[in-house]
Amino acid sequence: MPHDSETRPRSGMRKVSKRYDRHPQTIWRWYTKGNFPKPHYVNGYREWFNDELDEHDRKHIQSYEQRQAILENHGENKD
Asked: For 46, 48, 56, 65, which has the most beta carbons within 10 A of its beta carbon?
């Protein structure tokens, strides 16, 4: 029976850097600063599970939208 890490869709550094349109060093820097999901080592390769990247994106977009709403509300109160 295959292990969960062998069946879950995943992406290596090249795909992840392309997904975010950033250099691989930037992706790694985000991770080391705690701003990006932890990679997993599958068969000796550093990879990210796509569902974890999707969840990271959802949280990031939600927090961005919340910040934008706060800024917009703050601007409305100043006028």
From this structure: 48
User: H helices within 1-79, ranges in order?
Assistant: 4-7, 13-20, 24-32, 50-78
Tell me the pLDDT tens digit for each residue of 24-75: 999 999 999 999 999 999 889 999 999 999 999 999 888 888 878 877 887 6
Look-up of token digits 């250099």: 23
At position 50, the amino acid (one-letter code) is N
Q: Is 66 in a helix, a strand, or coil?
A: helix
pTM confidence score: 0.73
**3, 9, 26, 74, 78 from 32: Cα distances, Å:** 27, 23, 10, 33, 38
